[in-house]
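In the design runs reported in the main text, the only information available to the sequence generator was the tokenized backbone. The following block is the verbatim input for one such run; it is reproduced so that readers can re-run the procedure and compare outputs position by position.
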């Protein structure tokens, strides 16, 4: 179960009840920004949607980019290859760029890259005391996150816009093009909700719901992770997954619901909802996981020693 860790915070504080409360707050805050962050592809898609909106379609004329006319020519394909390299270079630069937002006189600092992904959230030891309470600290963290996100957007949108202005060939090329005439694979192309994928997800859930209570707890979910990826699931990652799977981003989660874990319906949705996986930034492939788990089970059954048939003596 390929679930990437979503807690990118670095918390430097003393151990105690305040640390536990603060850690849970950070998980929720990080998830809000993980699910709402903007990507370069989203931004570029907006540009193209605006360019090709109905109010512009009737204006097709000689001034229209060649990339939008007729079938692709060899020259157009060559131009797209060159533009694809530009897009790849821009993507690399944006991923290594840093944009910061701060609060509490620098005691809370949020750092984003150029594609609006949260890289780190640094909190000083005395940030909680400086803020005056957990609620005030949460508000300060959100302020730092907002500043860092906005700084990333304003600091990079000009570069993206200029790239499309200088390379109109990209208007006809897939947004996932990364150069050399190739396109990046859509990681979520196999994530769909069908009768088959739902059935496979149900079978996987039933297999690992060892106590048959209708929920995956931390131990059971960790076994899924170990069976599919060969790694254990940390408690914080599990809590993050529960929050991500809950309605409204987990804002109404109760302690009892957190203790229950993941329901069958939530597991099925996580495995079959491509939009949710894109927002959360991980890939779950039910076909791969189901095949791997049940193949391993079948192999284990074959490897079990079979009992020798008992000899019988027949007396005439």
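Verbatim output:
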């Amino acid at each position: 179960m390929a679930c990437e860790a979503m807690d990118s915070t670095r918390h430097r504080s003393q151990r105690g009840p305040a640390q536990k409360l603060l850690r849970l707050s950070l998980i929720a805050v990080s998830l809000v920004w993980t699910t709402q962050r903007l990507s370069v592809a989203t931004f570029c898609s907006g540009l193209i949607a605006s360019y090709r909106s109905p109010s512009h379609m009737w204006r097709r004329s000689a001034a229209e980019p060649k990339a939008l006319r007729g079938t692709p020519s060899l020259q157009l394909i060559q131009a797209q290859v060159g533009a694809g390299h530009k897009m790849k270079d821009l993507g690399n630069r944006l991923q290594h760029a840093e944009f910061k937002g701060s609060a509490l006189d620098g005691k809370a600092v949020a750092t984003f890259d150029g594609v609006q992904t949260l890289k780190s959230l640094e909190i000083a030891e005395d940030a909680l005391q400086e803020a005056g309470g957990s609620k005030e600290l949460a508000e300060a963290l959100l302020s730092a996150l907002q500043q860092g996100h906005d700084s990333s957007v304003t600091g990079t949108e000009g570069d993206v816009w200029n790239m499309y202005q200088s390379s109109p060939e990209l208007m006809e090329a897939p947004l996932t093009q990364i150069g050399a005439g190739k396109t990046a694979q859509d990681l979520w192309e196999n994530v769909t909700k069908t009768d088959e994928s739902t059935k496979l997800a149900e079978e996987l859930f039933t297999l690992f719901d060892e106590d048959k209570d209708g929920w995956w707890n931390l131990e059971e979910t960790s076994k899924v992770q170990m069976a599919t990826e060969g790694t254990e699931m940390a408690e914080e990652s599990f809590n993050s997954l529960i929050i991500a799977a809950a309605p409204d981003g987990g804002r109404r989660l109760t302690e009892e619901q957190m203790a229950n874990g993941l329901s069958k319906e939530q597991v099925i949705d996580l495995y079959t909802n491509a939009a949710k996986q894109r927002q959360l930034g991980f890939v779950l492939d039910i076909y791969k996981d189901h095949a791997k788990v049940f193949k391993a089970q079948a192999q284990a059954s074959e490897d079990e020693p079979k009992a020798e048939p008992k000899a019988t003596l027949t007396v005439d």
